[in-house]
Design brief:
CATH superfamily of the largest domain in chain A: P-loop containing nucleotide triphosphate hydrolases
Order of helices and strands of chain A: HHHEHEHEHEEHEHEHHHH
Oligomer: homodimer
Largest sheet of chain A: 7 strands, parallel
CATH class of the largest domain in chain A: Alpha Beta
């Protein structure tokens, strides 16, 4: 283990003290892929695990950001500190389009108890998710009571940010027909809490019924998934959401599945990060290494098939 | 290159002759991950590239299978041979639930010009997608004029079956709000042709307008994406769909982008297959190798962070 230099040492101290500017600086280092960022995460990892990590997923446009804003407001009323990390390219946080009445988080910008950060996820699969997980760890180490992760529900990536959460909230709205179908068909992972947002919509009751029907088809996991209605822009149903999140937390703590879930998630993260790095290495090699370039060209000329080329590529690396 | 044994030689000959039973046998070998399957794909790969590969994606329940069935009927009317490969766990093909009036493909089961095969995609990320791509290659080599790939639109996997297609058709229906939002937000890949199926629905016009609005926000790629309405269960709009697919084909041939797209896809396949294999190796090692097990346990005990553990894992492999 290399000794940290004094700047990093100082940053670690300031992070542990929960300084928002240190948090911002740390995440920038991570985002830029700097060595110091990795050293920092290594230094603070032992301090992580106290934060409650809540993941918010769901299709674009359902109001995940508004929901997170409203929940943040609730959490602040009982003095809980909050870190928000958005890795949804369709999120208004990520776009930086902070239109007052649309995004309730705007009111939190001057509150040091709320730290908001977004990452653009488009394209950069492994690299971005890896950085997001590290940023979540840093928020945790900086003493945030809650870390709220916002991500668009696409799934099946090498590393999935949502897999880092203790509790996964799926946000839907009337009109989220595709998500319902995906739940029904068993194509979508079953979340821990479901929220139907924008519940002033006339089709909300129908939607809630459909969600419940879809859930009835999924295997019993010992936890009855609550289906809540919220109108996040007016703060309605947010108390119930907070209660459901806390009930889920109590459930997994009581069952011992919190520790189990975290162990499984951390292991999957290691494998996922390693896989994503190997992929980036392969891609870089394919561009830089004439032999690999030739191998790929032979596939394009249909001289050797893709699976054989993949095998040769791996054998070449192993040499 | 190892010499193929006589059984494989014979199978290759029967495949080249387009024998449906040889095709079924070949795909079973591939699906079971047998060495003979790989040898076979290696032997026939030079014969591939003639088939038109059309990918169908979209949320569960929009009627992709019915659409594929109706298109198959059209293609058979002009004596085109068809191979259908479903890698959508929500597809009726995959479920084997062939209810006569629901699935128009049932009428093709006795036609040797139509070959239907499904693969269950749940969970098995790399392995399944790899097998599906090989199955598509075998159908191509067996002289199928069209290979139709059905897949649920999840994306971002290590290997994505849809990336193997020359033309990607996105199927939607009134109620596909999530997909529209994803298109608008730029979270979903832009397809080549969009079909709004079940067009007897009263909200079809609204849906088509929304699709067009979403497309208007996407960058101009030189190809005007047609937005078609179909009622696949009655065969309506299927001629237009076929024409749109052929127009897209003519467009990419004329522009020279067909060759470019195929080269890019094949290269991505090689990297994707190699990555998926590396991931499986890592997972197997994590289970079998005591040292890696210890490394992962240290992460769970928060002694070393996930990124550092991933680095150590890769260093250990490199030794």
């Amino acid at each position: 283990m290399t000794a940290l230099n004094t700047t990093t040492d100082e940053l670690v101290e300031r992070l542990r003290a929960g300084e928002p500017r240190a948090l911002a600086r740390a995440i920038t280092l991570i985002e830029n892929g700097e060595e110091e960022g990795s050293a920092l995460v290594g230094a603070i990892f032992a301090d992580t695990g106290a934060a409650r990590v809540i993941g918010f997923t769901g299709p674009p446009g359902v109001g995940k950001s508004t929901l997170i804003g409203a929940l943040t407001k609730q959490l602040r009323e009982t003095d809980q500190t909050v870190g928000v990390l958005s890795v949804d390219p369709s999120s208004p946080f990520t776009h930086g389009a902070l239109l007052g009445d649309r995004i309730r988080l705007a009111e939190h910008f001057l509150d040091p108890g709320v730290f908001i950060r977004s990452m653009a996820s488009r394209g950069a699969l492994g690299g971005m998710a890896e950085a997001a997980l590290q940023a979540a760890l840093v928020m945790d180490a900086a003493g945030r009571d809650y870390v709220l992760l916002e991500t668009v529900g696409v799934g099946q990536a090498e590393i999935d940010v949502i897999d880092h959460a203790d509790t996964v909230v799926l946000a839907l709205m009337p009109g989220s027909g595709d998500s319902i179908q995906a739940l029904k068909a068993g194509v979508m992972e079953i979340p821990d809490v479901i929220v139907v947002n924008k519940s002033d919509h006339p089709l909300t009751d129908t939607m809630i019924r459909e969600v419940k029907t879809a859930l009835a088809l999924s295997p019993d996991r010992g936890w009855r998934i609550p289906v809540l209605r919220t109108e996040a822009s007016r703060g309605e149903g947010v108390t119930e959401l907070r209660e459901a999140i806390e009930a889920h937390r109590a459930h997994i703590e009581a069952e011992g599945t919190l520790a189990e879930r975290r162990a499984r998630n951390l292991r999957a993260e290691v494998i996922g990060i390693a896989t994503a790095r190997l992929r980036r290495q392969l891609e870089a090699q394919a561009l830089a290494d004439g032999e690999i370039e030739q191998l790929l060209d032979r596939v394009v000329r249909r001289e050797i098939d893709p699976a054989r080329a993949a095998r040769e590529l791996l054998e070449k690396r192993a040499q």
